[in-house]
Amino acid sequence: MLTRRNFLRSTLLLPAGLCLPKIAFAENSSDEVLVCVFQRGAVDGLSMLVPYTDPNYYDLRKSIAIPEPGNGRNRSLPLNDQFAMHPSLRPFQKMYEDKKLVAIPSCGSPNGSRSHFDAQDYMESGVAGSKSVLDGWMNRVLAELETNSPFDALAMTTTMPRALRGNRSALNIPDINRYEIGYANETGGIRRDVDAARILSELYNNSSLGRSTLPAFEALESLRKRKYKSTNVEYPDGEFSRQLIELAQLIKSDLGVKLAFVEIGGWDTHANQGGAVGQLAGNLYQLGYGISAFFKDLAQWSKNVVLITMSEFGRTVKQNGNNGTDHGHGTTFFAMGAVNGGQVLGNFQELHKDNLYEGRDVPVTTDYRDVLTEILHHHMGVRNFDRIFPGYEVSQTRYPGSMAGT
If I label 330, which of 30, 63, 119, 249 is the partner at 20 to 30 A Cα–Cα? Predict the structure, then answer.
């Protein structure tokens, strides 16, 4: 017999990592969207953005350096008289030429931790070296925005990322097709029940669950029925592209998306990193062609979107004995979309030993929080950063210049 107690025990809201919204389902006050792509594992910024005029780069990377621009498919792709793109990032070169991408080398957190766990935790919390801040910087941004949709903040990841955890509500959507209301059977499987949503709605009609979460599930069910396919856009295969495809679908459905988090791993290249081809090149292909397809998929919606790539730290300047690189410090961030594109920004220093962090790493000359505050200020309209980045003194004089009007 189905009773209220048994229903609550057996009803399953998929996925289990859902963070329930507590606000009304309504249209947002503006259309601007910020997408964070986190490259987990510490990406080698010197392979993404190649300082091809610096002789130290080739002296320190005998087998993994990316060849300077020239004829041949494995040559780096020139941006200006100092920097070039990895050949797997050809779509980024095109976005750069179209004034829709800026590159920021020597970027990252001033904290010198080489622990993936700690460095990711610090970066996503928005602090440098403190574990006392429990919520994430993206969650705190929600408190500064005029938001009123269950879809304000989305994580397209398996679990809720640190950046979106906190007092404000966010949705964790690892797979739109897994969002349904059903029952867990005795073997742990799922069987659908047509009465489940009706009963849940009746039980919680006047609660935040009934007013916002159930309409959110209904909206996702409607999206599933449309069987969305990106028009004239080809994404690479893989999990990263699936996240981007579903995020594009949600943005284009005008559900009020403001902040979104996507991630791609595989950047911890201690051995056999490769150069123009190989392990790293394959991952960069997924990144470059996936993000390019995402912006093409968005079509007219892309004018309202800024996407930033970030990683917890970079790699050593000198290759190691296993033809790879070890944990470093500064790396390269990209900002794309509605940006002041066609520029390489920041202060990149020659890769001479005297300029390197602890004599081995790319230094951090641009704090990642300066990149974020500029975007949040000019794109999202945020003005109060004291709470978003506690303990950090924000100054417009340190904005790198990635947004028009800065």
Answer: 63
Residue 209: exposure state from Cβ atoms within 10 A (0-12, 13-18, ≥19):
middle
User: Which of helix, strand or coil describes residue 228?
Assistant: coil
Residue 144: closest CA among 307, 395, 384, 377: 384
- d(C-alpha 62, C-alpha 66), whole Å: 10
**Spacing of C-alpha 288 from chain mean position:** 13
Task: Give tens-digit pLDDT for 158-171.
Answer: 999 999 999 998 99
Among 105, 108, 128, 110, CA closest to 118 = 128
Alpha carbon distance 296, 223 (integer Å)? 20
* pTM for the full predicted model: 0.87
Domains identified in the chain and CATH numbers? 19-175+232-398 (3.40.720)
Q: Sort residue 243 into left (φ over 0), alpha (ψ -120 to 50) or beta.
A: alpha
Q: What are phi and psi of 276, to 5 degrees?
A: -70, -25
Beta strands in 194-342 (DSSP E): 259-264, 305-310, 331-337
